TrEMBL record:
Pfam family, one: GHMP_kinases_C
UniProt cross-references to InterPro entries, sorted A to Z: GHMP_kinase_C_dom, GHMP_kinase_C_sf, GHMP_kinase_N_dom, Homoserine_kinase, Ribosomal_Su5_D2-typ_SF, Ribsml_uS5_D2-typ_fold_subgr
HAMAP family: Homoser_kinase
Molecular function as annotated in GO: ATP binding; homoserine kinase activity
Keyword NAD attached: no
Pathway in which the depicted protein is active: Amino-acid biosynthesis; L-threonine biosynthesis; L-threonine from L-aspartate: step 4/5
Name of the protein in its database record: Homoserine kinase
E.C. code: 2.7.1.39
GO BP annotation list: threonine biosynthetic process
CC terms in the record's Gene Ontology section: cytoplasm
Length: 285
């Protein structure tokens, strides 16, 4: 048996819709694989009751098929489904790494990205590599049609996950088809600032670069309490706050590791004030 830990991820980071993604230190899925004549899947852990074990309907079944690597695959979910933290991507990435090794396929992490993305498409409908790529490669990842660029960024963050779900379909449905040129210009500026910030591990630049006037304002209304939680995190020392992926998780970048406790506490209290239970991960990119 071979065991792999596959990290949660946060996509978009505000200004980088469908382009930016980061790997998070926590939470994570654990994927265990052993050779078998045909693929079978068992799922345990958080939200496992919502995840099909049929290989044709599960993200890791498609990965096993693409690698021609039948196996018994055990997924211990640490990343809650429908969290905005790349739950299906973590399982797909973990299975891709584990099966590649189990069957000595010799593919690089980068070569596994399209395979894991196809697996994720089973669940999400489209193959967005902005979650599988950082889960496989770590750090900060820029995904475009031309390829993938990875940077070994390291920054303290807090991820606050409320006990609500936002359907990815709804979250994509509110994304505007068009944007004003002025907003596009601002967003390009923010995305460029954020990218430079990642290369310097600079929380001020990354926080400032997370601003986005196109997608995030539309999506944030799907998360009860978002404005209050964002404000509370900023007042407690976060440099930038945005919706993680399609939500409902909210990501806050912190100046130092020791700031994370106050930011996490403020975010939990703000959700509590609107009657929503939540949990906070004090972690890092
Ligand atoms: N970029 C995608 C979105 C990620 O925000 O819809 C989904 O996890």
């Amino acid at each position: 048996m071979l065991t792999v830990r596959a990290p949660a991820t946060s996509a978009n980071l505000g200004s980088g819709f469908d382009v930016f993604g980061v790997a998070l230190g926590a939470p994570a899925d654990i994927v265990r694989v052993s050779r078998a004549p045909e693929t079978t899947i068992t799922v345990t852990g958080t939200g496992s009751e919502y995840i099909p074990e049929d290989p044709k309907k599960n993200t890791v079944g498609a990965v096993a098929e693409a690698l021609d690597a039948p196996a018994h695959i055990e997924i211990d979910k640490g990343v809650r489904p429908s969290s905005g933290l790349g739950s299906s991507a973590a399982s797909a990435a973990g299975a891709a790494v584990a099966l590649n090794e189990l069957y000595d396929r010799g593919l690089s992490r980068k070569e596994l990205v399209p395979i894991a993305a196809e697996g994720e498409a089973i669940v999400s409908g489209t193959a967005h590599a902005d979650n599988v790529a950082p889960s496989l490669l770590g750090g900060f990842v820029i995904v475009t049609d031309d390829g993938i660029t990875q940077v070994d960024a390291s920054l303290p963050v807090v991820v606050c996950l409320p006990e609500i779900t936002v359907s990815t379909c709804d979250a994509r449905g509110v994304v505007p088809e068009q944007a004003r040129l002025g907003d596009v210009v601002d967003t390009v500026g923010h995305a460029a600032t954020l990218s430079v910030g990642m290369t310097r591990n600079d929380p001020e630049l990354v926080g400032r670069g997370m601003a986005d006037e196109i997608v995030t304002p539309e999506r944030s209304v799907l998360i009860d309490g978002y404005d209050a939680v964002r404000e509370a995190a900023l007042e407690s020392g976060a440099t930038g706050v945005t919706v993680s992926g399609a939500g409902p998780a909210i990501l806050a970048v912190c100046r130092t590791e020791s700031d994370r406790g106050a930011v996490a506490g403020a975010m939990l209290d703000a959700f509590d004030a609107v009657g929503i239970e939540s949990r906070a991960y004090q972690t890092a990119i």
